[in-house]
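Quick log. Single chain, no ligands specified.
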Amino acid sequence: MNNGFVTSEIKNNIAEITFGTPKSNSLPGEILELLAKTILECGKDENVKAILLKSAGEKSFCAGASFDELLEIEELETSKKFFGGFAKVLNAMRNCGKLVVVRVQGKTTGGGVGIACAADYCFATKDSALALTELNLGIGPFVIGPFVERKIGKSAYSAMSIDADFRNAEWCEKHDIYQNVSENISEMDQQIDGFLKKLSTRSYDALALIKIVSWEGTEHFEQLMPERILMSASLILEDSAKRNIEMIKERLRSK
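-> predicted structure:
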């Protein structure tokens, strides 16, 4: 798959799902669809007690939506399908029935922040800063908003949406996005390995019930999604949004 990949492997009752794309693990529609499907499939596996969700490489965890694909979108239904892909991934993490542990190894923007916030438990390195950069494009973090707000509260979510600035790992840990922050990737992976070994010995039923209880009060997320998807899908079609994306791509190329 030229635009990226999603792999899954089950070992010691833990499903390890890895996604990757060439441009900072930004996510095109086909990868979003495959990622959501893989999470749900692993959730149905009776041998799986928890899911580890990670991305490829050592720099960016996830740069959110694929700029290339955003520029190609020209009509509303296509746009709704694309942003609906992010909703599918986050709701798959919420509904899969298994605890989802997320590994964040570097900077994360946009939809990637949603993935970090949809985690049941999140590991990161000290270099793993987060930013909601959607306003720079001319849209907002509408689809991922309920998941981010659940973790950090409405006021902090609003501030992140408005200033689009990066928050460092210390801030993310303080605001309960990260539960464990390591000095480097090697140390983080050691922490994750020990954590998952413990989880693999825990009661299947207890883990499943913790998942249910943890997400109580979020049942309305499903109903919110069509309206939130439409917000982003409509705004990204505007000429100003296309120009913003082109300018950002040019800045990235010149670095």
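The chain has one domain: 5-183.
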